[in-house]
Amino acid sequence: MPSRLSISVEGIELRGRCGVTAEERAVGQALIVDVHLEPVACPGSLSDDLADTVDYGWIVDVVRGIVEGHEFKLLERLAAVIADAIWDPLDLVFIEVAVTKPAPPVAIPIAAARVEVVRTA
Fold it and tell me: CA-to-CA distance for 3 and 20, rounded, in angstroms?
């Protein structure tokens, strides 16, 4: 049995309303979410049963509901809300949620802005 197991769901690309200006929130933009977590235990590594692990589909559904169902000014807040929504129902040692906004509207062109929120037990 592994002494430590981590699970990642990366590149969840959705359209959301996150930005300081009303225009950004009205129009919305692509947002990319990555979730990395470490459960206290993962019996699924032995049982090969979905009921004994963290369901990736559930994580995607939680992220989608928050990104598409709410409006945020800051990436920091969006990432924190996602982290809390996943942390609360699961028994985790660690979670990291990163939210990336490609090509944000700043003074000069940049590839992306990225915020990471980490929670530990």
Answer: 43
Listed in sequence order, the residues at least 6 apart from 41 whose beta carbon sits closer than 8 Å to its beta carbon are: 91
The CATH number of 7-120 is: 3.30.1130.10
Ranges of each domain in the chain: 7-120
**Between vectors from CA 68 to CA 35 and to CA 7, what angle results, nearest 5°?**
15
Q: Where are the beta strands (DSSP E) in the chain?
A: 7-18, 29-39, 71-72, 92-102, 112-120
pLDDT in tens, 55-109: 999 999 999 999 999 999 999 999 999 999 999 999 999 999 999 999 998 999 9
User: Which of the residues are catalytic?
Assistant: 101
Contact 73, 19 (CB under 8 A): yes
